[in-house]
Specification:
Layout (H helix, E strand, L loop, with lengths): L2 E6 L6 H16 L3 E6 L9 H6 L1 E2 L3 E2 H10 L3 E5 H6 L13 E3 L1 H10 L2 E4 L1
Parallel strand pairs: 1-2, 1-7, 2-5, 5-6
Antiparallel strand pairs: 3-4
Helix pairs in contact: 1-3
Length: 120
C-alpha cells in the first residue's frame, strides 16, 4: 500500500473542494493506504468544531463524516502553526479534532516521506 499526503489550502469559503480533500483522504484510508494531512492557509479553519460540524460539500459529503473516519483510522492531521496563529485558531480551544501544529519544515519532511501528494 502507498503513503499519501493530502495538502489542503482551501478553506470554508470553498466547501465542495474542502470536503473533497477529506473525501479522497478517507477513501485512501478505507482502501488501506496510509494518509497524512497538512492544512495551511485558510484550510486550518476547517478544523474549528463549528466548521467541522456544519460544512458539507456539493456531492462531496459532510466534513464531520470524513473527519471521524480519518481520526478513527489514526490519520495524522497537521495544521500550519503560522496559518493557525494568523487566524486565531488554537487546538484544544477551537477544535476537539486531534491536530498537531507544524512549521513549514514539517511539510517538507512529509513531502519527502510519502509516496504521493495530493493538493487541494
Amino acid at each position: 500500500m502507498a503513503s499519501i499526503l493530502v495538502h489542503v489550502t482551501c478553506g470554508p469559503n470553498d466547501p465542495s473542494r474542502a470536503a473533497l480533500a477529506f473525501l479522497v483522504a478517507r477513501t485512501a484510508v478505507e482502501e488501506g493506504h496510509t494518509v497524512s494531512m497538512f492544512l495551511a492557509a485558510d484550510a486550518v479553519q476547517l478544523m474549528r468544531d463549528s466548521t467541522v460540524d456544519a460544512l458539507e460539500g456539493l456531492g462531496t459529503g459532510r466534513l464531520r463524516d470524513h473527519v471521524d473516519v480519518l481520526v478513527g483510522a489514526g490519520t495524522r492531521i497537521y495544521l500550519s502553526g503560522q496559518s493557525s496563529k494568523a487566524r486565531g485558531l488554537e487546538p484544544g480551544r477551537d477544535t476537539t479534532v486531534p491536530v498537531e501544529l507544524a512549521p513549514p519544515a514539517r511539510l517538507v519532511q512529509l513531502l519527502l516521506e510519502h509516496d504521493r501528494t495530493l493538493t487541494y
